[in-house]
Amino acid sequence: MPFYGFFLRNRLPVGLMRSEWRYWGSAMATNAAIAAMLTTLVWSGGWNVVVLIFFPTVLLAAGTGLWFFYVQHRFQHTSWNKEADWDIRDAVLEGSSHDDLPSILRWITGNIGVQHAQPLASPIPF
Question: Is the predicted pLDDT of residue 9 greater than 60, yes or no?
């Protein structure tokens, strides 16, 4: 599933084309940056670098990211409410877990273990 999410679904935001041009423009700008990076990798190291190093690394990172997301939002006391009962504070505090990660994993993941608090104070990075 990481392949579909990272290489297909987010690269062509077909469902968002009519809602606003910024989504499509952002996806296309990201696609251009990825194409430039891959072109540079092929030019400097050849296809072997892309196939044997770049793609496996991206798939490993995508799978790890999906696992973190799954673990953080699927736990025993997760709160699921209908739209009429929905409140941002409740959704933030009851819809995610707090992952107490080791220091190195907090640094590597940009402190994703406390990402559930970010919507309450959006100017806070990570």
Answer: yes
| Distance from the Cα of residue 97 to its chain's centroid | 17
pLDDT in tens, 76-89: 666 666 677 777 77
Q: Which long-range contacts link 92-101 to residues 24+ away (Cβ below 8 Å)? A: 92/116, 92/117, 92/119, 92/120, 96/72, 97/71, 97/72, 97/73, 99/68, 99/71, 99/72
Nearby residues of 109 by Cβ (< 8 Å), 6 or more positions away: 68, 101
CA 22-28-34 angle, to 5 degrees, is: 135
Handedness of CA 79, 83, 85, 91 (dihedral sign): positive
Q: What is the C-alpha separation between 24 and 17, in angstroms, rounded?
A: 6
Please determine, for residue 125, whether its predicted confidence score (pLDDT) is greater than 80.
no
